[in-house]
């Protein structure tokens, strides 16, 4: 896949996710093999007003590269202005969010709402392309609802606007995150596109990523929810794509070690208070399927001191070692997917 100077073979990309893909999570995913990482989306109006919290979302470290800043908004002027500010943070490229279905975004005419105003969408894209000298890409959905799927009409308009790649989440706005992503439509976009297509939606395993490449013929795949609490998915996907088999099978020790690493990074970047608080949403996915986890989870989400969080996680790891010796990990296998089964039985 080529975007500007960037040239990557079958890249596996971390999707932008609000409240998830902050610096700490991006760094982890990068270390586990993500080829490109995206920031959380950043409001063009907030960038324009210089809101500190929003500006901070655009900070990244050199070891995250290639790194992308995603912006959203509903006006050509605000988006062009925000893009200039975003460019000063030196991302590898800028992405425009035309896919967010949430009321707070689409309800204000931004994100997925622009699927109902293709001309305006194209004008916004063109104004951002004109404003900056780095590549500009778009992430969107296939249409507003099943009766108005218009991604194939939108595609040439975005290409004419100078967009250099398109990421397609195979759902409509109305579907939000329900049902399963429609990979057929992503395949149709690839058939018609003259720019790289990044396929997104419902990649939960390395096998799904391979299937997505094969089904759609896309140039890249993008993983969102499947990576939360599971950055190992990037390593596994790269192994399957490059070596033909998944070799990395994380066990509870690996999962707990990464949860602790994530917490440390979170505290480094957000400070003790927010770094600890914001990690609370991640523990359940890191520990998913492990034995007697609910009690531990309850403790973790009440604890304010990150040193104590680490102690709780380490104590739980010792419990898991004990369950393993007693052969008790086996009884929890039914909760787990295939890879995780190997995780507890190995
Ligand atoms: C918690 C959460 C936050 C998200 N935030 C963003 C965002 O800021 N920008 C964006 O383009 N998409 C956002 N998305 C959508 C994802 O990037 C992705 O398109 C979607 O989750 C489908 O991919 P998946 O099935 O791999 O999760 C978000 C999704 C989730 C679950």
What is this structure, in a nutshell?
This protein is an alpha/beta fold. Helices cover 47% and strands 14% of the residues. The strands form two sheets. An eight-stranded parallel β-barrel has the order 3-4-5-6-7-8-9-10, surrounded by seven helices. The protein has a two-stranded antiparallel sheet with strand order 1-2.
What do these coordinates show?
The chain is α/β, with parallel strands linked by helices and 346 residues long. It has 2 domains: 242 residues, TIM Barrel (Alpha-Beta Barrel); 94 residues, no CATH class. The protein is built from 15 helices and 10 strands. The strands form 2 sheets. An 8-stranded parallel beta barrel has the order 3-4-5-6-7-8-9-10, surrounded by 7 helices. The chain has a two-stranded antiparallel ribbon with strand order 1-2. Strand 9, helix 9 and strand 10 form a beta-alpha-beta unit. Helix 1 packs antiparallel against helix 11, helix 6 runs parallel beside helix 7 and helix 13 runs antiparallel to helix 14. It starts with a strand and ends with a helix. The site of flavin mononucleotide has 21 residues, from strand 4.
